[in-house]
């Protein structure tokens, strides 16, 4: 009985430690050459938006920050949050990121990341969002 309880506890902790990633890729039929990004002033990491733009542009998609004069067929919104790790590294880590690609006021693709508990949550932000953006804009 103790072995079963120990194994169950380990499996439960392992499940909690894994990040939750959900991606609905932009359909391959959508050829995006230019993407307007709606800046989110609630995201308080200075380097986040430049990193997102850099990674999207690696997919041969030009990006621009949406302005009143922007006329883009495709728009992306995003959100991100950081949390403090009080146990493993005593540092800040990306705890949540969400991206949504919109065309004609309809979402055509989305990607989200929620960090798990434990050391798997720790790491550079660019490495956490790269798999999301690769899957979101895969051809």
N→C terminal distance: 50 Å
Structural class given helices, strands, pairing?
alpha/beta
CATH T-level fold name: Rossmann fold
Specify the CATH class: Alpha Beta
Provide the helix percentage. Answer: 25-40%
* Unreliable segments of 5+ consecutive residues: 4-16
Radius of gyration: 18 Å
CATH-level-2 architecture: 3-Layer(aba) Sandwich
- What sort of overall outline do the alpha carbons produce when their principal axes are compared? globular
Estimate the strand proportion.
25-35%
Give me the count of strands.
Answer: 6
For the sheet with most strands, the description reads: 6 strands, mixed
Report on the architecture of this protein:
- The protein has 139 residues and is an alpha/beta fold.
- It has one domain: Rossmann fold (3-Layer(aba) Sandwich).
- The protein has 3 helices and 6 strands; from the N terminus they run αββαββββα.
- The chain has helices at 2-17, 48-57, 125-136; strands spanning 20-24, 34-37, 62-65, 74-84, 92-103, 106-114.
- The chain has a 6-stranded mixed β-sheet, with helices on one face.
- A hairpin with a 2-residue loop joins strand 5 and strand 6 (106-114).
- Helix 2 (48-57) packs parallel to helix 3 (125-136).
- The longest helix has 16 residues, at 2-17.
- The protein is globular.
- The termini are far apart.
- Mean pLDDT is 85; it is low at 4-16.
């Amino acid at each position: 009985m103790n072995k079963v309880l120990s194994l169950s506890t380990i499996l439960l902790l392992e499940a909690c430690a894994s990040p939750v990633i959900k991606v609905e890729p932009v359909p391959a039929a959508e050829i995006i050459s230019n993407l307007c990004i709606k800046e989110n002033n609630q995201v308080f990491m200075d380097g986040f938006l430049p990193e997102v733009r850099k990674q999207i542009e690696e997919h041969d998609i030009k990006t621009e920050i949406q302005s009143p004069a922007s006329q883009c067929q495709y728009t992306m919104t995003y959100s991100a949050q950081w949390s403090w790790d009080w146990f493993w590294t005593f540092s800040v880590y990306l705890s949540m990121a969400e991206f949504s690609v919109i065309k004609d006021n309809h979402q055509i693709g989305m990607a989200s990341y929620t960090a798990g508990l434990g050391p798997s949550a720790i790491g550079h932000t660019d490495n956490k969002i790269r798999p999301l953006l690769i899957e979101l804009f895969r051809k």
